[in-house]
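ok so i was messing around last nite and threw this chain in just to see what happens. nothing serious, just curious
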Amino acid sequence: MQALGQRLRAARLRRRISTVLFAERMGVSRDTLNRLEKGESTIALGTYLRALRVLGLDRDLDAVARDDVLGQKLQDLRLTGQKHRRREESTGGDRGQS
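result:
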């Protein structure tokens, strides 16, 4: 969260938006904004999302977990394992049957 807070602060500064204006547009206090930019974990995720929306970066959320490579590999392994089990079950398996 700390890195996200720093990136949000940098994005705000690049846009030359003051903390007062940014907090106002987000609907939060300056104290909350300061804590958000420090990446404090007590700040609600929705507040981070509002910051992204105010900065015009909310479309970046679409990229979160889009390409879940690990999850896809795990799913493929489970599917492959199920095919092998089904084949063994339908043929009587390979359990010493003669």
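not much to say yet. The first helix runs from residue 2 to 14.
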